[in-house]
Design a protein that fits this description.
Layout (H helix, E strand, L loop, with lengths): L8 E4 L2 H8 L7 E5 L3 E5 L4 H7 L10 E4 L4 H12 L3 E5 L5 H11 L4 E5 L2 H6 L4 H22 L8 H14 L4 E2 L4 E4 L20 E10 L2 E10 L5 H20 L6 H14 L11 E3 L6 E5 L30 E4 L2 E4 L3 E4 L2 E6 L2 E4 L8 E2 L1
Amino acid sequence: MLVERELDALVVSFLPNVFYLTNFTGSSAVVLVTRGQLHFITDFRYLTAVETSWATPHGCPGASLVRVGTNYDETLVGLVKAVGVNRVGFEAAHVPFAQHARWAAGFGPGVNAVPTERIVEAERVRKDAHETATLREAAGVLTPAFDRVLAEVRPGRSEREVAARIDWILMDSGFERPAFETIVASGPNGALPHARPGMRRLAAGDLVVLDLGGVHDGYCVDLTRTVSLGDPDAQARRVYGAVLDAHAAGIAASRSGATAREVDRAARGSLERAGLGDAFGHGTGHGLGIEVHEEPWLRRAEAQPAVPAGDAGSQPTPETHVVIESGMVFTIEPGAYLPGWGGVRVEDDILVTDEGPEVLTQVPRELVVV
């Protein structure tokens, strides 16, 4: 990882990447990775918790624990000087300019601070056995929780009230917290892909988009279903059926060796054939893991060469459509949004295996009438 980039060390300050490397779940830490050692910098608030967590099978045994002195920046600068490295990479996408300036000034002329992109993220794209087991467990928690969610969707309740109940159900089911702000979008609000729950009250005849997810042992799962309050009309059934067909096409295309663009194309093409291509404006899916939105991104882009996710030499950006590989986990979530009428979205979490796509979220996908 460092040798091929001609780095002596890498400063990791983006907390999801810190968690990936160390299993640290606190709010303040910096990691300095050298070619032979991982140095973990944190302050007094977390010292005992870190030492305890590192005694677990998924901790970080063998790491060097460094206590913050005056502040994080001065402690990092002192550590870099003490270990005697020259080319030190930093996460350019996550380090503010002012902080980089402090580091560079502190390092002095003998140390070269080198901007890097996606070094840790490229490793995170493919999940290992522990991660896939955790994501399967999380999906297993989400599936029965959704049955409880359906009981909360009824006429007369406001979107905000239903969203609050969903958040409580997620926590009561065992999740650490919701993975994102829960979406409850009823009637015409369903035409807004990222609608925020408001005071609109659910009414008979509404389609209601429910987008929810939770964090389990540090990993995120994400699910969307659209339900009908009462018998849906012909338009609702037509749009729902088209989205469901696109969803199935996206899953079928989610195989090792395909490109992310091809998966998006499969779902998007299905909606286009149904006359709803213009109603589907977002990507078909996104990666899942420590973050609820991470690589790979399944969406349209200008023509770019397909490269393997972990190809360090090419260092693809998140916009590059990587080749789908076994071990990737991502959502398939096509939708159709018609202003003034409403919308439909169906979303599941997919694990790519050597045998094909495995659907982690086993919630029925047919249109539910409540």
